[in-house]
Amino acid sequence: MSTARAARRILIRLGAMAAAGTLLAACGSGSTDAQDSNGKVTLTVDLFGTFGFKEAGLYKEYEKSHPNITIKQTDTQEEKNYWKALQTRLAGGGGLADVQGIEIGRIASVAQRQSDKFEDLNQYGAGKLKANFTDSKWGAATTRSGQVMGLGTDNGPGAICYRTDLLKKAGLPTDRDELAKKWSTWDGYLELGKQYMKNAPAKTAWIDSIRSIYTNVAGQYKERYYDSSGKLIYQDSPAVKEAWDLSVKADRAGVSAELAQWTPPWNQAFAAGSFATLPCPAWMLGYIKGQAGDAGKGKWDIAKMPGVPGNWGGSYLSIPKAAKHKKEAYELIEWLTAPEQQAKLFTEIGNFPSSVPALAKVADTKDPYFSGAPIGKIFGDAAKQAPVQVLGVNDQDIQEQITAGLFEIEKKGTSPDTAWKHAEKGIENAIG
Q1: What is the CATH number of domain 16-155+313-368?
Q2: How far, in Å, CA of 2 to CA of 21, rounded?
Q3: Which fold has domain 158-312+374-431?
Q4: Beta carbons of 387 and 310 less than 8 angstroms apart
């Protein structure tokens, strides 16, 4: 996962999954040469998306203070592909990195179903770090018996990122406070989108995809797919209903560019300026910079999200039981998730801290790439007010099937009722 993700470009490599498999096969738990005769240790870190450690220079900083350590990171762009590969490796017991990233939508599965596959970090002294993290962040990675399955990297409080140049050309205001008032509700956001489309610059739309609306609206609720007792509730969930209905309304309003997130066309659309607004959790800032590039600096700004504050995403770092260098891996993840490093990640990249002491450090942060937006305040206020979400063992699988249903509506013209039935069937197949 979650700044002034300052002027560094984040390069997301397409097709990274194949590279990840190749590298981890060489450097994972089956490797025999990860530590040489001089005591040098090569730590392997396998992640998805943009965690920002490399881009913020944290690996180099750590290697400088630990000359016996070399860090090799592999990435998979899309989390669902990463998770599928991770499950295959966990089942086989090989090809695993010393450190594996875990998305917040998967952490309940790790804590409740796969604790036998990952190290209990308490044995390395993680218990002393509890006060560093918010209760929800720490609790989500803790098993019923008190085992700690991972250390939190970030949270994903939300906002709206927007292109000031496109809004200006469409005759709409560009001031972040004025826009926040106009789109104080999601209906207001869609109405402004309709106004934009009437005078939109050629080949542009209001939003990238209706699925962006779904994910962010659902993230404004405490309960989405499971209730606090662990009961599956998605079929009757107010969160799912509102998020689905608003997404369908956006499709009917014709305000979407109909782009699938995390695909090459979506990536290219940032540089091309194909959409004017994007619901964006804090960790999305670095992604925008990486795809829009230097040419986008000063064209983007950030305003408060419609409705109540919400959260999308946030991640953890875990150590598989099959890892080769467990002690060294723990020392690395403790350092990477410490308040000082989390604050730096927000300042340099945009990942919002899940560390309590780091919050005060980033409160006044502004981002020159996003027109000097006070991202410390915008995302900080959202984080303070966002609900503590109930996390279920299949959150991510359920969300993927529901958004796949929305894709059918958006791209294929499938009726909402039929698309919902397809989503239900997909969920049944995915989780049993």
Answers
A1: 3.40.190.10
A2: 25
A3: D-Maltodextrin-Binding Protein; domain 2 (3.40.190)
A4: yes
Strand order in the sheet with 158-163: 205-207, 275-281, 158-163, 300-303
Residue type, 107: I
Query: 3-class DSSP state for residue 141?
Result: coil
Reported as a single tens digit per residue, the pLDDT across 198-253 is 999 999 999 999 999 999 999 999 999 999 999 999 999 999 999 999 999 999 99
pTM (2 d.p.): 0.88
**By the 8 A CB rule, do 30 and 379 touch?**
no
Residue 432 pLDDT level (bands cut at 50, 70, 90) = confident
Nearest partner of 159 among 2, 338, 359, judged by Cα: 2
Strands ordered across the beta sheet of 99-103: 69-76, 41-48, 99-103, 315-318, 151-152
- Look up tokens 């960790």; give the residue: 283
**Closest listed residue to residue 171, CA positions, set 194, 206, 200, 191:** 200
Distances 46 to 10, 15, 82, 261, 316 between C-alpha atoms, Å = 17, 14, 9, 21, 12
Counting beta carbons within 10 angstroms of the beta carbon of residue 177, is it exposed (0 to 12), middle (13 to 18) or buried (19 or more)? exposed
